[in-house]
Amino acid sequence: MGELLDRQHQRALLEELIRAYPDDVAATELADRLPGNSLRVNAAYLAEHALIVANFVSDLRNGPQLITAKITAKGMDFMAADGGLGAILGVVTIKFHEEDLRQLIEARIRDSDEAPTQKQRLLDQLRELPAETTKHLALELVSAGLRNWPTALQLLQKFLI
User: What is the reported pTM?
Assistant: First the structure.
């Protein structure tokens, strides 16, 4: 049955369901566009990935038979060029309090190879920065870390392994 999985058929099915949204579409209306067993197999596959809701009835002789299908919000987002609302709602926001950021930077300064007097001077200056400047500094430090990609990649691998 794996050979029946077809990206073009899946796309055609999703496009048909988008046109009918928010209504269900009868399998008889979809059968013309997806020949043979392809409609049943690709609808089941898309349903297992939650891109559509597929209603099947059991047929003892022919196995599960598709009755109706409807695209889900996840399916609509999947087909949207911009990722739809899922891309907006799926954004992860990371928040640090000013003091937490300051402590992270202070720890890196203390662990550095700088001379003790230089470390103390940097720590004193850091503690005097306004919150907005600390935030800007943190963004610049993240950018600097990513510009040093080999080191950033090693760090990433360390955390992911």
Answer: 0.58
